Amino acid sequence: MAGKEKPNVVHQNAIHVETVRKEQRHQKLHTEFGFNPHQKLHVPADNPMSRKPTKAIAENSAFIEAFHKAQLEPNKKYSMPQTASHEIGWLSTPLIPSNWNDKRLNFHRSSTAITKQK
């Protein structure tokens, strides 16, 4: 019965070199990162008592445009409703124009001789 021989240092080094080459062949370096435009971006505020100066942020118009688009209401982002929940209230304009002088719809407080406090 022949037992399995333990690989010597040269063989172990050859296996290690082959593994490293295989990893480098399939490795990708990601340099562009983004954010999910469908999720709100929460930036924590600085401590109000800190003395460090605020950093000047270089404006990136594509980032700012994508950020503002993500904050829009659904009916301004899309031309048609995307989900069943969007269909309810998609057209949110009032059916009749509001008139504050119409006494049938607006019940303002008014004081009369009966309700006047002495």
Kindly describe this structure.
- With 118 residues, the protein is an all-alpha fold.
- The chain contains 4 helices and no strands.
- The chain has helices spanning 9-25, 61-70, 74-77, 84-87.
- The termini are far apart.
Give the strand content: under 5%
Weakly predicted, low-confidence segments: none
Order of helices and strands: HHHH
Q: Into which percent range does the helicity of residues fall?
A: 25-40%
Per-chain topology:
Elements: H1 9-25, H2 61-70, H3 74-77, H4 84-87
Q: Can you summarize this structure?
A:
This protein is mostly helical and 118 residues long. The chain has four helices and no strands.
Output the keywords.
118 residues; single chain; mainly alpha; 30% helix
